[in-house]
Write the structure tokens for this entry.
Amino acid sequence: MPTVDVIDKNRNKVDQVDLPDEVFNIEVRPDVLHQVVLWQLAKKRAGNASTKTRSEVRGGGRKPWRQKGTGRARAGTIRSPLWRGGGTINGPKPRDYAFKLNKKLRSLGLKMAISAKLQEDQLVILNDLDLPETKTKHFAGVMSGLDLSKALFVTTEEDHTAILSSRNIPGVKVIRTDGLNVYDVLKYDHLVLIRPSVDKIVERLS
């Protein structure tokens, strides 16, 4: 069971916390992380591209010329896919790219992503994230005090002050424990857990 220091906004040690092995210290398998990230990105795809077939393009109801006697090829509509302004053959239609992924595998992937941060010494446990007011400079001061540039902050509840204060700082995101996911954990260099969120994560993944 790894023991990690709990620090304040100036990187001073204020406490220690024991992290359970079954959540924070498991073997990391890149193939599992790859599957979960693919699943997340596939769910995010809009799939809204849509083209019109010859029956959906406006106009083209009248036969452009008679069937025989003109010397030209037979034509039934000016909206044929062969004509400029016509329909599209086998074009994209709205679709859902999501696929099913076992719930246990998704949970395992999140444990592995968190464990990877701990093993790479990129996991930070912060005692609190109390900001005096909603100001970008206050959150920038926290980042400076922690000596971080690209980090994911995890809180137990939706902290609007922290969210609004951090949204103008590139490379920073604040989310709740409910929204913790593999893609975001791997995307940011450091994972910063506010002290109460550790218990919530353990409760969710144990």
About this structure: The longest helix spans residues 103-119. The longest strand covers residues 13-18.
